[in-house]
Write a structure and sequence with these properties.
The chain has a 9-stranded mixed beta sheet, with helices on both faces. The chain is built from 7 helices and 9 strands. The C terminus is likely disordered. It is 34% helix and 21% strand.
């Protein structure tokens, strides 16, 4: 079984803080086998992580967190950025056109762009896998909803730290029963549901700090954009 982190943000995300090297150092330190950097609507840092992961004894999985009209969708195994603002269905199609895996993160956390505010349960079930444990939680209720839903539809389940600072990488991991140590084998095993999940809550003070840092960076970037 491989320990895989499938949901991490670098400084390329508007609400992320750290560069790729710090993320990979942390992943190595906590004993992960593989990692996907999944920035918001950006893929450059993920490509860098894939290229540099072997230096840290890791498997790099390319990925991106896409802002669809319905909410956030993780595209794993994609090499090119997928534009934000597409419909949920179009976003899934774009991921699959690249041979990628469409994982629906924190679907029931509507305050964090979970898709269930805008799509039906039938549409949610069209995802290739459901993130059933996200470390950035307050009560755990949304995670339990996601797990119940995935089990009721026999959908593959994943976990992710949703780390926005390197120290939180590995808070939640997906255990993957892959046939070999490669990104393709990991994604295929996830597709086949050969996973188990485990994780722990991101401390509240860190979650709030991450949120506050994201707001500050978003305002700063907006102001800088006005004067460009």
């Amino acid at each position: 079984m491989l320990s895989v982190e499938l949901h991490v943000h670098s400084s390329l995300s508007y609400d992320g803080r750290d560069p790729v090297d710090l993320i990979l150092e942390q992943a190595e330190a906590v004993g992960l086998d593989a990692i996907a950097v999944t920035d918001h609507d950006e893929i450059s840092a993920s490509r860098e992580a894939v290229e540099r992961a072997p230096e840290y004894g890791l498997i790099g999985i390319p990925g991106i967190e896409i802002s669809s009209k319905a909410g956030h969708v993780l595209g794993l195994g994609v090499e090119e950025a997928i534009p934000p603002g597409l419909t949920y269905e179009e976003t899934l199609e774009e991921i699959r056109s690249q041979g990628g895996l469409a994982v629906i993160p924190h679907p029931f956390q509507q305050s964090r762009h979970g898709v269930t505010a805008r799509i039906s349960r039938e549409e949610l079930a069209e995802g290739d896998a459901i993130e059933v444990y996200n470390s950035r939680l307050l009560t755990g209720r949304a995670n339990r909803q996601a797990e119940r839903f995935a089990k009721s539809r026999d959908l593959p389940m994943t976990a992710g730290s949703d780390a926005h600072i390197s120290e939180m990488v590995g808070q939640a991991v997906t255990r993957v029963d892959a046939d070999e140590r490669s990104a393709d084998a990991i994604l295929e095993a996830i597709r086949e549901g050969k996973t188990s999940v485990e994780g722990k809550r991101t401390p509240w003070h860190i979650s709030f700090r991450q949120f506050g840092g994201g707001v500050t960076r978003r305002i700063r970037n907006t102001v800088l954009g006005v004067f460009k």
